[in-house]
Amino acid sequence: MALLTDEHLSWVGTADPPATVEISRRDIVKYSTATEQQQKKYLAGDEAPPMFVFNLFAEIPAMDAMRNDGLARRARQGPSLPLKRMMAGGTNVDLRRPIRPGDVLTATRTLVGLSEKQGRSGPLIFLEYQTEVVDAEGRLVMSEHQTGIAR
Amino acid sequence: MSTPQDTPGPDAKPSDADETSTRVLTSAPAISEIMVGDVLPQRRHTPSNVSLFLYNAAVWNPHRIHYDAAYATEGEGHAGIVVDGPLQGDWITQTVLNWLGPDDNLVRFGYQNRLATHLGETLVSGGTVVAVDIAARLVSLELFVANEAGTVTTPGTATVLLAS
C-alpha cells in the first residue's frame, strides 16, 4: 500500500507564503471565553493563551472554496492527498514570549514530513509542519511542530 | 452548558508518609519545595454544543464533524460530534497555566490527540511532576486529558520555568 507518490513527497521542504496577522483583544477574549480560561489576563484579552495561535495564520477561504466537509477545497499549497478526512494529531510548541493585543505576527509554515501507516481503522497519512512565528521586529515569538492526520 | 470545576484529587492534603510524593499541589510552590510525583489539580470538562460552536468559531474551523451530528456520523464515520483535538490541547496548557504563579512561565508544551472524544463525554485533565531541576528552576510535567473510562485521550508534556 503506497498512498504517497513521489509527487506528494516532493512537497516536503516547501513553505507556505508567510502569513501576517494583527492580534486583536476581542479575538483573544472570544477564544478565552470559548475555552473557559480561568486566568483574568486571558479572559480580559491582555494576553493570549498559548493555544490561541491554533489556525490563526491559516487562510480564510471564500464560501465557494469550501468542500462539503466544511474544509477548504485545497488548504493552501501542497499536494492533493488521496485521503480526505482530516483530523488533528498534536503539536510541540516552544514559547518565547506572550502574545498580546496589537502584536503584528508573521508565521512561516513548512511541510517537514509526509508519511503513511496502517492504523486500526485503515490507512493514515501524517503531515508534519514546522511553524516559526516572529513579531514585527523579526524576533521569534514561538515555534511549533504540528502533526495533522488524513484518514 | 459546559461548567468545568476544579476537583480536588483523592489526596488533597500534603502527604507526609511516602518518599515518592502523591500530594496535590493547588499551586506551584518554590522550586525547592517541589517533588517528583507531586500532582496538579484535576479539572472536569463537559463540552457542550454551544461551547464547541464558539470554540470552532473562534479558531475559524468550519469542519462539520464538530457541529453537524448527522454529517459526523454518516459522512465521516465518527461516533458523534467530535471534540476538537486542539481544544483538548488547550486544556493540557490550562492544567499548567492555572497551577503556575503570576511570575512563573510555561516555556514548552506538547500533546498528541490519540483517541477521538465525542460530545456528551465528560473529560478530566490533570498532571504530575516528573522532573525537577533546582539549579535551572525548571520543572517537567506529564499531563493528560482522559475520558470517563479513565483512558487517556490526549497525553501531553510541559516544561515550566519557576520564578523562585
Kindly describe this structure:
The complex is a heterodimer of chains A (151) and B (164). Chain A is mainly β. Chain A has 3 helices and 5 strands, in the order αβααββββ. Chain A has a single domain (6-150), classed as Thiol Ester Dehydrase, Chain A (Roll), CATH 3.10.129.10. Chain A has a 5-stranded antiparallel sheet, with no helix packed on it. In chain A, β4 and β5 (140-150) form a beta hairpin. The radius of gyration of chain A is 17 Å and the shape is globular. By secondary structure, chain B is an alpha+beta fold. Chain B starts with 5 loop residues before the first strand and ends with a strand. The interface between A and B is large, with 35 and 40 residues. β2 (86-95) of chain A pairs antiparallel with β3 (105-112) of chain B, so a sheet runs across the interface.
Q: What attributes characterize this protein structure?
A:
heterodimer; A: 151 residues; mainly beta; Thiol Ester Dehydrase, Chain A; B: 164 residues; alpha+beta; 6-stranded antiparallel beta sheet; 3 helices; 6 strands; 18% helix; disordered N terminus
